[in-house]
Amino acid sequence: MTTRDAPRSDFDHHSSTFAARAFEISDTLLAECPVSWSEHYGGFWVVADYDHVTEAFRDHESFSSAKGASVPDLSFGSTHLPTTLDPPEHHVFRKYLNPWFTLEAMRKREPQMRELIRELIEGLAAKGTWDFVPDLADIMPGTMILVMLGMSTDRRDEFLGAMERGMSNQGTTDPGVLAQMAEDKRWLQEQLLGEIADRRKNPSDDLMSYLANEPLSDGRQISDSQIIDIVMVLLLAGFHTTSGALAALLVHLEQHPDQRRHLQQNPDMLPTAIEEIVRVYSPATAMARTLTKDMEYGGVQMAKGDRALMVIMAANRDPEHFTDPAEVDLQRSERGSVAFGWGVHRCLGIHLARVLLRLQMELLFEIIPDYHVDLAAVRLSTTLGIGYVHTSVPGHAHAVV
Ligand code: HEM
């Protein structure tokens, strides 16, 4: 079956239709056409079922990352290392970066993260009313990366603002927005080049010093532009993923007060709750690959050069793999969520994300135990292209209302 006679899905992950009915559309893909062809963005395969999504991620020889993980191409940013590398080069870069992001490395940073989060949440408590998205969720992942890089957090808002605009406007063709994104990119590069030059002169024990001075395991020194590509990914990767997960968790718990009560009484259950939220809401909605050869896959004939989009959100709702897949089950023991990816590109920041999410909830329960989310004012993004994102989750402390 070729693109001409393959099942058509009209799937467009950047559309407002998908944003409004993401779960329903994911379930329809699973039930009616687990592998289909969409004509959007020049045409791409839509892969929805668990087995084909995980197998494609595992088979990096047939499904290459070299052309990036987005459909259409991410207009903001750079070559995106290590995202756009295939093995064996990918392995060299992951080996280089992994030690900074292990579970152990994150445990060591936990006290530092706890303090940063405490400060933010005490700030929310002092204000009385706030928006969880800009005032907490969007701040923490980028802040921790800036801290790890040894960069001043004074310019945090400028950095996070530029990254936010880049992420939110993916798929845009608006010339004004594209010009702003180009200017943001130029500004970010200028800042990062300054930091690299500084660490060459004054090396320290931070991640930026490591990138600027430490060669890869095969002895090669990475170039300035490669360092920028890595740092851009690190700064971008927490947006709309970790922040999306926190917003989804807060909204979910407001809608399910029994689960919220249970977690407040048993905060040791938070890691399971976080895994479930990340699976069901799949903040990294979909990731793309490019076919390196003609091959039959999922009952269709794919051709070399075709783009294929793995719909993580759908795979995580596949009833063939998960019992009652749409349920956030705090007792679930089934493993195998694809939310953090699969295979060689599985999320580098998985431990950072898990610790950040757990600490934010622990400290929120501790500092503002009677916090409340104003469900009527919650706003989901009108484009969920690569992220299940809330644009606004207003909150307040019960006492002030
Ligand atoms: C709930 C939060 C997060 C989710 C759901 C998530 C999800 C994902 C997914 C699905 C991938 C695979 C991409 C692919 O296959 O092409 C990935 C890769 C990646 N993630 Fe995360 N991510 C999260 C948080 C973070 C954070 C906080 C960081 C910060 C360091 C991060 C850094 C990365 C990097 C660098 C990669 C590329 C890895 C590679 O290509 O080898 N992620 N993430």
Number of domains: 1
User: What string, H for helix and E for strand, traces the elements in order?
Assistant: HHEEHEHHEHHHHHHHHHEEEEHHEEEE
Strand content: 5-15%
Q: Which CATH architecture? A: Orthogonal Bundle
Looking at the structure, the CATH topology is Cytochrome p450
* Portion in helices: 40-55%
Description:
The protein has one domain (16-400): Cytochrome P450 (Cytochrome p450). 48% of the residues lie in helices and 10% in strands. It contains 16 helices and twelve strands. Helix 9 packs across helix 10 (207-213) and helix 12 (242-255) crosses helix 14 (270-281). Protoporphyrin IX containing FE is lined by residues 57, 65, 69, 82-83, 94, 141, 233-234, 237-238, 241-242, 245, 278, 283-284, 287, 312, 339-341, 345, 347-349, 352-353.
SSE topology sketch:
Blueprint lengths: L15 H5 L1 H11 L2 E4 L5 E4 L2 H9 L4 E2 L24 H9 L5 H25 L1 E3 H6 L2 H10 L6 H13 L6 H27 L5 H7 L10 H14 L4 H14 L1 H9 L4 H12 L4 E6 L3 E3 L2 E3 L4 E5 H4 L34 H18 L3 E3 L5 E2 L9 E3 L1 E4 L4
Parallel strand pairs: 2-8
Antiparallel strand pairs: 1-2, 3-5, 4-12, 5-8, 6-7, 9-12, 10-11
The structure holds protoporphyrin IX containing FE.
Protoporphyrin IX containing FE binds next to helix 11, helix 12 and helix 16.
